[in-house]
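Hi D.,

Good news: the full-assembly prediction came through. Inputs first.
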Amino acid sequence: MGKHAWTTDPGETLRVGDGFRLSGVDPDATPGFDGGKKAGERLLAARREELGDLQERLFAGSRAGEAEGSVLLVLQAMDSAGKGGIVRHVVGGVDPQGVELASFGAPTTEELEHDFLWRVRKRLPRPGFIGVFDRSHYEDVLIGRVRELAPEDEIERRYGAINDFERGIAASGTRIVKVMLHISRDEQKQRLMERLDRPDKRWKYNPGDVDERRLWDQYMAAYQTVFDRTSVPDAPWHVVPADRKWYARLAVQELLIDALENLDPRWPAADFDVEEEKRRLADS
Amino acid sequence: MGKHAWTTDPGETLRVGDGFRLSGVDPDATPGFDGGKKAGERLLAARREELGDLQERLFAGSRAGEAEGSVLLVLQAMDSAGKGGIVRHVVGGVDPQGVELASFGAPTTEELEHDFLWRVRKRLPRPGFIGVFDRSHYEDVLIGRVRELAPEDEIERRYGAINDFERGIAASGTRIVKVMLHISRDEQKQRLMERLDRPDKRWKYNPGDVDERRLWDQYMAAYQTVFDRTSVPDAPWHVVPADRKWYARLAVQELLIDALENLDPRWPAADFDVEEEKRRLADS
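Then the structure:
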């Protein structure tokens, strides 16, 4: 259960608390980790088993009707910050049967006819599952705010609505892990340029990415407001420096392990007579 | 692209063709593979990259609106034959964002009010995705037949309905990979006993498993009928010996790679002016 090269608990170090300033976070740093890329990659591989084991216990408990817990990982970031890599390299390490992924793009006409949380509620993880939101209801106070996609008073209303919503989820047994992957403007430029350069990456590029990039400072301000108003004890935010992909993956893996350890899932007891079943099986 | 230790193409070797007899298949064999467990596990790890690359191309093409293809892996087997291991160790090797898993248990009351294909149609993979059915519409002619869950003429009707259904899916661009994992009765007994012995495996055990096990011969006969009537050129069955888990995983991985290579997904062309975007990005 040791965290090896972690010198401080990433759950503490990266948590958004009182007085947090996004502008004070260095996207290139590796806070709390005493090692480089190689050590980080080794630890990521080593901790996969722990994560997988916890996930299986969680799943087992819910199948036996004994546990009601679930985990919800909310991923937010500017384009190219590495959400997909987290899904692939961190979440991809556990049994796919226990994971529910949801990507939230621009809302459809039908979705726009409902409250902004409508489409999100439908994708919450069932008990026993790890849910992953690739973007989320926070888009409605991020691009929603920057692009003025809703009236100002509606945007204002949403922060409180989000807190109420998440409080309800937490009360029903879901551990919410909110993560902003934080890259620098320069790193984003390099990554987008690489997408343009490589024919096998070009499909990930969207000309709209540059338009959003031009609004970088407005987005950072919108994130700061999100942190000020929605980093609450039941559902704190974590800002993960993400210029180094290996660090971001390692940190998110540790946050997930923490959330699962907190739920403390146990192998369920048999709801049948084990010795009797052994006899029946032996005779069959 | 070499198949290394494969001496024959598993797609050919394991395919159910004319005159196939399930009783002639040795569940402990490793047909077409010239190597043992170690070599098999090494090859599984090595081929993961090829599978992941093909999956990403398929996904990319569909995102760009250029391709309509998808792959549907149908997994059928007696209990404990290793369906879960295939999902975890083979399918788990590709990006979870490109996979759609569906498990079919006993039908709900609502599902029973509809035709047996109703619930299955709703879970077909979208273009660009790999869909995995953990059990499927074949249960309706397997347990359905053995347990007489429907009138005999309805069971008879279903074989033709399945062929029509799958022909339609294939025509719309889906490669259907149908796999029966074939374990021996003895191996099943050992695996179920292990589930009873180990507290961390007990949740997977169901007393009903022994009841089904007692009907082994009837199930094998029902499978034989499935093969006789639904192994068609557009959607052939493959019977994969599964007493050795490593072999079954390796074989299914190869079947998936074959299906994807057959679709031949290409990186999509940019639908924007790459040089112009490089200039816009550089200026931003």
